[in-house]
Write a structure and sequence with these properties.
54% of the residues lie in helices and 15% in strands. It is α+β, with helices and mostly antiparallel strands. It has a three-stranded antiparallel sheet with strand order 1-3-2. A hairpin with a 2-residue loop joins β2 and β3 (51-55). The radius of gyration is 14 Å and the shape is globular. The relative contact order is 0.16. The model has no long low-confidence stretch (mean pLDDT 88).
Amino acid sequence: MPTGREKNHDRLGQVQFLTVAEVADIMRVSKMTVYRLVHSGELPAVRVGRSFRVPENEVHAYLENAYYSAG
């Protein structure tokens, strides 16, 4: 039977992480905008050394929640 740590490891192994540059390309914004979203907590990220990695599913969730009706 897997322990809690093994379950987390399996779940994290399935997550696709994107660089800030890749997120900026997907969202069609500057890297600075992505950094602002990460630092403000609006876009979750993991720090790896001196850089950030953003879970791909979080990018899609952020974009889905960003829709609004104008008019």
